[in-house]
Design a protein that fits this description.
Length: about 150
């Protein structure tokens, strides 16, 4: 972030950067992002980072989720991701998947939960990206969603 920016300049700068990043991403990889692809990716991420301990029963995109990026129902193992994520870089979608998958192992946002999430190496980068999007778009998210 360039020094000496006012809050308004800062918001514009973040919006510009986010726009540029997602356009770059669009060029690189066109979404092969169906519900089936999302489910496959979730299983893969559970294998890579969560010792296969998170076993989702379904993973799908939803349009009705405006106050959180993702959600899960540990009781039936279902995971839902906001379609807002669809145009974001793959590592950000991966982070939200890992976040929701980790809730299938540990509920709430305590130390044990974050220890699982932190096994995904781009966690901090992805959280920073989402913070930038949230600030630039003036989104009001459920404070519970990502309580660190
Ligand atoms: Zn959470």
């Amino acid at each position: 972030m360039p020094a000496g920016f006012s809050a308004a300049e800062e918001a514009r700068w973040v919006a510009d950067m986010v726009g540029r990043l997602s356009r770059q991403d669009d060029r690189r990889r066109r979404p092969r992002r169906s519900d089936a692809a999302l489910m496959r990716r979730a299983v893969e991420l559970s294998h890579l980072h969560l010792q296969d301990r998170a076993v989702p029963s379904s993973v799908r995109w939803v349009t009705n989720q405006n106050r959180r990026w993702g959600s899960c129902t540990p009781l039936d193992g279902s995971i839902r991701l906001s379609t807002r994520l669809r145009t974001m870089p793959a590592y950000v979608v991966d982070y939200v998947l890992v976040h929701e998958l980790a809730h299938l192992i540990v509920s709430g946002h305590g130390d044990r939960f974050w220890a699982w999430v932190a096994r995904y190496p781009l966690t901090e980068r992805a959280r920073g990206y989402l913070d930038g999007v949230q600030a630039a778009a003036g989104l009001v998210l459920d404070p519970d969603w990502d309580a660190g």
